Amino acid sequence: MLSVDPKKIPSRLDIALDYITGEIAKGNLGPGDKLPNEKELAQLLGISRTPIREAIKTLAVSGLVETRHGFGNYIRKDEGLPAMPLAMFQLYLQSSTPEMLMELRFVFDRNCSELASLRRTDEDLAIMRECIDRLKRLSDDPNSPIEELLKADLDFHRAIYKAAGNPLIAVVADFVLNMVAPWVQKSLEVSGKWRAVGLHEHMFEMIRDRKTGDLSRESVEENMEHFRTSLLK
């Protein structure tokens, strides 16, 4: 179990990130608003301009902030789904440990699998079946690029999220899946492709046969244990 040191002193970058994201969360900064310039933020927070600059770069990469050269930095506007909370969530995930991400993924996969067992359609099952068959074909070929194997693996889990029948869950779960993708790839490289095929088959069978409760959780726990042990190797 991960232990967190309550006495950990935040870095200057953390101070800058926490301040800006806090202002967004409190509603003091909204879509289209201009951020104070680097000098103003540095004076306000009592730190140098370098961590301010790094914080803004980090926020830009996560999609929260856009830099308009010659004009300053602005909170990004979005005309579609409310992307700002999801971008902030992604930012927090980027600073998480593999263990924390693994636990979060387990929460989503366990519950999505149960919902998928109750709500899946024949079309959902066909998509899952195609993902497993693709993973099998790629596993048979020793020259298959790891990127294609990873895509087949991730596509299977995305099919489960979709079959859960809740678009909001699917979007957030996909954020988490994208963050753990490098470790999913490692599990394929370290523990073998065929082990992954077998685990996915078991999850598929539980969803196909509409199994819930202990049986459904067991199939997900097997997959997560495989994932966990791969991270430790």
UniProtKB/TrEMBL annotation:
Pfam families in UniProt: FCD, GntR
InterPro entries: GntR_C (IPR011711), TF_FadR/GntR_C (IPR008920), Tscrpt_reg_HTH_GntR (IPR000524), WH-like_DNA-bd_sf (IPR036388), WH_DNA-bd_sf (IPR036390)
Keyword DNA-binding: yes
Segments crossing the lipid bilayer: none
Calcium among keywords: no
SMART domains assigned to the protein according to its UniProt record, in alphabetical order: FCD, HTH_GNTR
PANTHER family in the record: TRANSCRIPTIONAL REGULATOR, GNTR FAMILY (PTHR43537), UXU OPERON TRANSCRIPTIONAL REGULATOR (PTHR43537:SF5)
UniProt-recorded name of the protein: GntR family transcriptional repressor for pyruvate dehydrogenase complex
Native source species: Rhizobium leucaenae
